[in-house]
Fold each of these.
Amino acid sequence: MTIQQRTTLTQFLIEERRRFPSASGDFNALILDVALACKAIAKAVAFGELGGMYGNHAADEGDSINVQGETQKKLDVLSNQLFIRMNEWAGNLAGMASEEMDDPYQIPKQFPRGKYLLVFDPLDGSSNIDVNVSVGSIFSVLRSSTDKEEVTEKDFLQAGSQQVAAGYALYGPTTMLILSVGNGVNGFTLDPTLGEFMLTHPQLKVPAQTQEFAINASNSRFWEAPVKRYVDECLAGKTGPRGKDFNMRWIASMVAEAHRILMRGGVFMYPRDTKDPSKPGRLRLLYEANPIGFIMEQAGGRASTGRVPMLNVQPTSLHQRIGLVFGSKEEVERIEKYHTEPAAPIEDDNPLFAKRSLFRD
Ligand code: AHG
Ligand code: MN
Ligand code: MN
């Protein structure tokens, strides 16, 4: 197939917009600006050490720490700046919020204000930057309900079901942009010679079943019983209750795990655990769990806290963390079911009460 036969992101958005004759075009302009930020980040990622992109930000001054208490990498900071610069000027946004900024970003006075809010994780998988493993950017578009001069944290506290659009860019062997505007999920591949995202993966669907799971097993001693049960059953394989062998993956870039799951199914878990009682999960609701959850649900998969559907959660703060489970529908539903079932009784060594005993019911 020649390049001319492929649909560009611009063409895709214009054709989508034709279905809504009253649409102003602001939304399309916003997505194209987000895509431009992603292309600029892809370029920085691709140059790596040649572009001086490895290492910690402000390393000479003792490093800089973001609101999450995490050391910022040079690429975290640069990616955040690129998202801001590409999106602040056009008049499509009322404000922005990011993993790398403590407070909402106000649109500078010299620029017009728009009706959308942009929320993003500019660089997901930061621990993988310096080792040349896939990283990505995650974004979520919300409607702004305020006509006040400045946006506040409260304006961003909308449930994931309110998202107008969500997506991510993956900076892997190829750069891809995955986008949902609420009617399915489409995948675009960056043609680096043209600098254009081309529609290569129309209407993506997550397979309902899987034999692959992803979890950071080094946290297993902190897992809650339902998660432990699920993983134990996967590990038991063919001879266990699931009757089939499972495979395990852990990239440590959630965006790359989400992409694998979108391509061939699977389940990802970063559940709530008991490691640090002050943190109800590792990942962040507004710019990690919600946009990825939206993509999963739009592709026929499922996203959950383990207890309730992710997209129904009412956020309470901008940088709120949450337990996250997403991927193939039947697996996520199984994990949710394990959370609602009473904990399995602990078997002791008493043969009278063991599974195959006289007193088994
Ligand atoms: P970020 O780089 O934006 O802070 O996010 C990293 C996240 C996520 O991408 C990944 O799944 C997880 O952190 C990795 O956690 P571990 O360090 O526990 O593997
Ligand atoms: Mn992240
Ligand atoms: Mn990040």
Amino acid sequence: MCGIIGYTGERPAAPILLDGLRRLEYRGYDSAGLAVSSGAGFTCVREAGRVSALADKVAPSSLPATCGISHTRWATHGAVTEANAHPHLSSDGCIALVHNGVIENHLALREVLLAEKFSFVSETDTEVLANLIALLYRGLDEGNPVDRFTEAVRLALGRVQGTYGIAALCREAPGHIIGARLGSPLILGVGAGEHLLASDAAALVSSTRNVVYLKDREVVHLTPDRFSLSTISRQSVSAVVSKIAWSVEDTEKGDFSHFMEKEIFEQPAALENAMRGRFADDESSPKFGGLNLTPPELRRIDRLLFCGCGSAWHACLSARYLIERYARIPVDVEYASEFRYRNAPLAKDTLVFVLSQSGETIDTLAALREALAKGYRVLAIVNSVGSTIAREAEGGIYQHAGPEIGVASTKAFTSHLMLAAMLAVYLGRMRDLSFTEGCRLVAGLRRAPGLARQALDLAPAIRSVADRFTHFDDMLFLGRQQMFPLALEGALKLKEIAYIHAEGYPAAELKHGPIALVGPQCPCLFLAPNDEVLPKVLSNVQEVKARGAPVILISTADAPIPDGLADEHIILPACPEPVLPVIAAIPLQLLSYYIAVNRGCDVDKPRNLAKSVTVE
Ligand code: G6P
């Protein structure tokens, strides 16, 4: 949440900052601003609303400065106003600051600063930190301005409680940027004669693919031609420069109307990437290189715990069905936000998996740290290479799904499902699954990209279903067993991007409450593939039909569905069981997408939401 980009080099900073903000906008989009060094101070431009509103206000030709910082905001402290937008300047004009995170002791610090005659023009915790750095800078009268600036940032960060990713400028040290992080991501971009700082690699790739991922409690000092890394406690750190595997084109919409649409259609490729190089030569099992656990260690695991948030949590639920079925290992699933504060008594040989697209979701990160602190082995399934969760987990699996920009997760979700299915078969082969059964399941897994392409071919038909269901205000999503997590995901997609009240339930739970809502104004979507519970699902369809509810049925070509049962019938290809959840997700994504477009919603930037939730 919130996006930061800073630049120091030889080119004018403002266009680079605006381009970076556009690429980071999925992290927050209620206000934006930039500050560049200018003469004896800063030129600071801010605007409530989108980055495009800020760009309209900034005349880059009037801002030739080659060093600046900028920010796109998701409001935590203070309303969505221009005054609360970042950057914030200290009241003496010495320091400009952008910040992602929450300073928890900002009220106490504000009192101290007021007593020192600093003043405030916003309600934000960030302005407190800007003033605190300025106060401490003033108190350091020895040394050159750059050293004093760096030291003042360190001292200030030593006094704050909470989380931060920051980039700061000092009026008396033009061309220098100081960045630091604790709990909020920050990445250094290493260019030729220029350096950048950003919350996410997406903002850097148009300038450089060489990056350094900062760790918690690290401070970075940037000038056009050099950078140095140290800890807040002044120990120097040697930087590891990594190369971003994707290019700027991967972060563009291309011919698609929305990133979400693009990412839905990228799923066959994302599934290929999830599988690439991950099957044993004899095709009897998936294999994973990065789990950092030996087969004997994996065989000893007698319980698994899966944690995540949002769609990743739904993927955890799906993992439970798959792993319990194929590997016969009991699986618990927890919301990361609940697990982190619950003193859960876990079985001794529990292996914890955290799932996260961004690798930065604060609750998932905290769950990982809590499990590690209790001495459990923790692995992660993450898309974002070099992210905090990826680095702090003891091992794991990269999704290689490419950058996901749309706020509502699509390709990262199905990639998580795919990897969960592969993991289930992998663990199963270490236990009771035979060689023959392993080969059969692997052959099924390998069909996922092709089946996903067939599901995507249904897009025109799903668009006409969407046209019929655009005007409803409520919808229920129902499915049993493996299809229950998909029902939850379908409902989440619809509410987050189309703002329609939607709920997902196990179909049998219908009669324990939700059926009270059912009627002509509350359509029901059933997931009814050809599985052992199909007859039960079809009975539930009859129950809602009897009460006048319009019915959308998503089934598979091999499912015996009576003619005329549903108002709309979407028929997926027959799927091998482990990839069924992956393929069933696709019509749900398309349906929500087309309904949201019909309703004129801003699909990629749904109201109040942001991707990469880095505040609790
Ligand atoms: C936000 C996004 C969701 C995502 C969730 C978890 O809520 O809008 O699409 O599923 O965060 O994100 P993560 O990056 O941890 O998968």
